[in-house]
Amino acid sequence: MNLSFWKNKKVFVTGHTGFKGSWLSLWLAKLGAEVTGYALKPPTNPSLFDVAAIKELIISMEGDIRNYENLKNTMQQVQPEIVIHMAAQPLVRKSYKYPILTYETNVMGTVNLLEAVRTIGNIKSVVNVTTDKCYENREWIWGYRENEPMGGYDPYSNSKGCSELVTAAYRNSFFSSKTYEKHKTAIATARAGNVIGGGDWAEDRLIPDCLKSLLNGEPVNIRSPYAIRPWQHVLEPLSGYLTLAEKLYNEGSEYAEGWNFGPDGKDIRNVEWIVKYICSQLKNGSSYRIENKIHLHENKYLNLDCTKAKFKLHWQPKWHLQEALDKTIEWAKAYEKNADMREVCLKQICEYEK
Ligand SMILES: NC(=O)c1ccc[n+]([C@@H]2O[C@H](COP(=O)([O-])OP(=O)(O)OC[C@H]3O[C@@H](n4cnc5c(N)ncnc54)[C@H](O)[C@@H]3O)[C@@H](O)[C@H]2O)c1
Fold first, then answer.
1. pLDDT exceeding 70 applies to what percent of the chain?
2. Cα(124)–Cα(183) distance, rounded to whole angstroms?
3. Percentage of residues in the chain having pLDDT higher than 90
4. Is 262 in the pocket of ligand 1 (CB under 6 A)?
5. Does 295 map to a domain?
6. Quick check: is 296 in a domain?
7. Whose CA is nearest to atom 37 of ligand 1?
8. How far apart are CA 247 and CA 259, in angstroms?
9. Fewest beta carbons within 10 Å, which of 5, 12, 184, 292?
10. Poorest-confidence range of 107-116, 294-303, 320-329?
11. Is 18 in the pocket of ligand 1 (CB under 6 A)?
């Protein structure tokens, strides 16, 4: 990552009140970027957005990604050079309950964003954040490569597969590499795995659920102990998005395609391993139990092949899984002690940058 690149860049971040959006906004503000965020209110209470007082560091606009006119007018006022799109309904289990909301937000939200980019013009670099779940899952152990088919079993995963397809259609139709000299806009998608880190209070996510129970002295309930996911610290994919956005800005359509950002092979662990590790680190008699209920479908294996990002972007994960978990536990303990959470986040960002 070229940290100095971001100084004074005008960056429009959607979903800035969320978990990843708050970390990204803080990091960009630290690097000297002029950040405008567009999102609904923080999705949880407490939220990282509030506890790290992100609002003081950026221009924060409350708006719905489903409202095209409002989104376009806001972007028109801001005139950003770079857009990072993260606003979404990001939870698998919630998508079973609210499929229409999930598709409206994740698919039409992407259409609205790209249409606004097309109408406004002069935006050089756009990164649409989707997920590792966008691929057609074959329940195999090998990592998916960027050229494999889109799919998605549940509404969330499928809506992100659709968001990928929408992006590809906009790129082919309006932002093609053949006409790049005319439009000068490069659009890519980023597919990252399950992220962990301090400040995530989302429902039905393993680490937040785990820390919540254990810090309250209760055993953790786990649903799918043998499910395997590409876990990584939140700063890992964010560094991938920033590297990619910079390449799109400087080198244009050559990088305008899909990119995977995931952990190294030895960090692909199952749920039970993660929970055992956290229990061992908290050392307070922590325990867990496996729920026997029948659960909604969730894929058993999910893994990403990140050869392309390593080879062409020179991006690679820095923190192994244990380190990522240690940083998350360190953050949760500091929060319990009422520490200054913006300072804790900034300290971890500085450690990551080194
Ligand atoms: N957290 C993960 O493990 C993970 C993994 C892969 C991909 N992702 C993707 O990363 C992005 C961010 O995820 P997160 O974990 O930070 O989610 P989050 O729920 O913490 O944040 C979601 C953000 O989107 C905003 N939002 C939701 N609906 C909106 C709407 N209608 N209009 C405007 N804003 C709206 C929320 O206000 C919030 O700012 C999402 O696109 C998600 O799909 C997350």
1. 98
2. 9
3. 78
4. no
5. no
6. no
7. 40
8. 12
9. 292
10. 294-303
11. yes
Asked whether residue 120 is assigned to any structural domain, the reply reads: yes
Domains held by the chain: number: 1
Atom of ligand 1 nearest to the CA of 105: 31
Dump pLDDT digits (tens) for 191-235. Answer: 998 899 999 999 878 888 888 887 778 888 888 888 887 889 999
Q: Is the CB of 125 under 6 A from ligand 1?
A: no
Q: Is the peptide bond before 42 cis (omega within 30 degrees of 0)?
A: no
With a threshold of 0.90, does the pTM exceed it?
Answer: yes
- Give the model's pLDDT for residue 206: 85
Task: Compute the distance from residue 294 Cα to the ligand 1 centre, in Å.
Answer: 27
Q: Per-residue pLDDT tens for 145-160? A: 999 999 999 999 999 9
Exposure string of 106-130, with b = 16+ CB inside 10 Å and e = fewer, is bbbbbbbbbbbbbebeebbbbbbbb
Residue 85 has pLDDT above 80, yes or no: yes
What string of H, E and C letters represents the secondary structure of the chain? CCHHHHCCCEEEEECCCCHHHHHHHHHHHHCCCEEEEEECCCCCCCCHHHHCCHHHCCEEEECCCCCHHHHHHHHHHHCCCEEEECCCCCCHHHHHHCHHHHHHHHHHHHHHHHHHHHHHCCCCEEEEECCHHHECCCCCCCCECCCCCECCCCHHHHHHHHHHHHHHHHHHHHCCHHHHHHHCCEEEEEEECCEECCCCCCCCCHHHHHHHHHHCCCCEEECCCCCEECCEECHHHHHHHHHHHHHHHHHHHHHCCEEEECCCHHHCEEHHHHHHHHHHHHCCCCCEEECCCCCCCCCCECCECCHHHHHHCCCCCCCCHHHHHHHHHHHHHHHHCCCCHHHHHHHHHHHHHC
| Parent domain of 259 | 7-290+301-353
CATH number of the domain to which 176 belongs: 3.40.50.720
Q: What is the mean pLDDT of the chain?
A: 94
Instruction: Let me know if residue 94 belongs to a domain.
Output: yes
**pLDDT tops 90 at residue 267:** no
